User: Which sequence fits this backbone?
């Protein structure tokens, strides 16, 4: 730990000790790390006899409901000013809400994140792009502040770690991530129960959509691709949530270096999800080209239906981009 | 480490130091732990300037070919007697070969395993049913014998650990498994590369079979089930190897407590794979009822085609067994 970090933690400790009233934020459409970190900190603050409140516009996705161990103070709107606001897993404060500016809702804003693009929007910024998950950062913070890690907090931290590393399969998995997971399991966190909750709770509708996308899977050069239509959702009584994770099944195709999945976003727009399996192909850059965004390995964008002639043609266009000289997909 | 273990390791060390000629065995149809442990020990012995030979009737499955870093001494038959034989991951010596008795092929037989049913068939038996994988035991052995763990050995050990814990998702994942994984990653083992090799090298034919089984997935009470026919294999140019892993995709069905997959074994026989998602349903016991075997969570059996009237009827029979009083599936 260097001096700056040590100073930041001292400030954070003072903020926690000297205040009672906290509001916790994370990005919309929260994933496992967002839910894991916001709940971990909520439980920690309650254990310290503080009064935390969670702002969440969406409800907690059904995958992560098992982490809710008690009735929580959740607000869907922020009607008053809070002493301290803490934001988890958001590179930018605008990812929290479209209707209000969170800086105006709090006296002190703390920003805890691991996105390399984080723009340090808080009064206190604890940002570590090397951390596999925000919960990994929280683990370090809690230990360094010498607070106890309760079983509830441990399972939230482990959940963020599991989901953001894809069960320790992605390249962000460090020996530290595994060491932390080991410590949490030693404390009693049930890794197989958590994994079952995350990975073995697919609805029938979601598995049917998986089947459909697999049956349509094609390979064009080194691009594996498939699609889901509006009527597939209707026929299988499925919702958008059911599409989550399908692209990661498609990426298991041996011959593919990148995979692409097209699916309906709304009446006018189609969503295109991208995954890269090769270090030198950066799908984040590719998505940027189409007005989207993401990381080197996982990214996406939206496009108007009328801009896509046929999926096959669009895949050819993507192939051209990947191989064009003007656009080198080399990751530095 | 207790006295017995310490004595065993002293004997093993003497056997390694005092001999030159080793033959290594594992069970037929080797999985990741079988391949990981046999190759880890092969590399270790070579690094100690010994002459190891591997007996393997099958070839190394394509999933694990990445672990082969050099030309190996592999024999498909054992034509002479070896000084030392070491068996990995086999509860019973009969799982090695149908044509010869391995005890007759060696002077000293060492048995290293983690199956609780291991019948201690070796002259030296190092059996730890608490270990998540045999490679986990090897890690402990190598460290306690104070040999170096090279990068090649580390990646073999990590492969066994990953495959036998399903990427640290199964209930055999202990804090120790995660701690060992952490140490191996610290030594340079590339966990994301290994995971990509294992989980992202599916053939198109395998993904098509997945799609077919998902499209046929049904739920009968708490049993999720599906089937693959002989002609599905033909139509998709698929082999039996392509069926591996499909049952684990089916088990992600939220509503299922157990999942069942029927698929062709040969002209007369059908294979039935079982997975349990609930602690109190032991599919190992269920499989035993039909002349098969396996563990609490994963098991299987074969049945003559003419014994199955329809899959649906057979599923009803399984349901009756699960709910019958005479057959309580409570795991002790």
Assistant:
């Amino acid at each position: 730990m260097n001096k700056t970090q040590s100073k930041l933690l001292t400030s954070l400790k003072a903020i926690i000790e000297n205040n009672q009233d906290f509001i916790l934020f994370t990005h919309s459409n929260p994933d496992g790390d967002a839910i894991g970190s916001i709940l971990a900190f909520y439980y920690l603050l309650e254990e310290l006899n503080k009064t935390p409140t969670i702002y969440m516009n969406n409800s907690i996705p059904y995958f992560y409901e098992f982490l809710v161990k008690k009735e929580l103070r959740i607000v869907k709107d922020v009607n008053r000013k809070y002493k301290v606001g803490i934001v988890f897993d958001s590179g930018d404060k605008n990812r929290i809400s479209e209707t209000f500016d969170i800086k105006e809702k709090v006296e002190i804003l703390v920003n805890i994140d691991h996105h390399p693009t984080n723009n340090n929007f808080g009064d206190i910024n604890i940002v570590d792009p090397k951390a596999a998950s925000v919960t990994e950062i929280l683990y370090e913070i809690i230990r360094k502040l010498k607070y106890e890690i309760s079983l509830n907090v441990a399972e939230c931290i482990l959940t963020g770690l599991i989901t953001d590393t894809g069960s320790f399969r992605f390249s962000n998995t460090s020996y530290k991530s595994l060491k932390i997971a080991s410590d949490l399991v030693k404390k009693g966190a049930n890794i197989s129960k958590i994994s079952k909750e995350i990975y073995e709770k697919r609805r029938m509708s979601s598995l049917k959509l998986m089947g459909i996308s697999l049956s349509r899977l094609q390979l064009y050069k080194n691009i594996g691709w498939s699609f889901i239509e509006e009527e597939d959702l209707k026929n299988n009584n499925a919702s958008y949530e059911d599409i989550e994770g399908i692209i990661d099944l498609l990426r298991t195709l041996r011959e593919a270096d990148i995979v692409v999945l097209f699916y309906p976003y709304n009446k006018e727009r189609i969503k295109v999800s991208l995954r890269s399996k090769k270090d030198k192909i950066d799908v984040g850059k590719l998505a940027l080209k189409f007005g989207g965004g993401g990381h080197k390995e996982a990214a996406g964008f939206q496009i108007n239906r009328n801009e896509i002639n046929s999926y096959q043609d669009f895949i050819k266009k993507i192939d051209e981009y990947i191989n064009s000289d003007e656009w080198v997909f080399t990751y530095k």
User: Anything to note?
Assistant: The first strand of chain A starts at residue 21 and ends at 26.
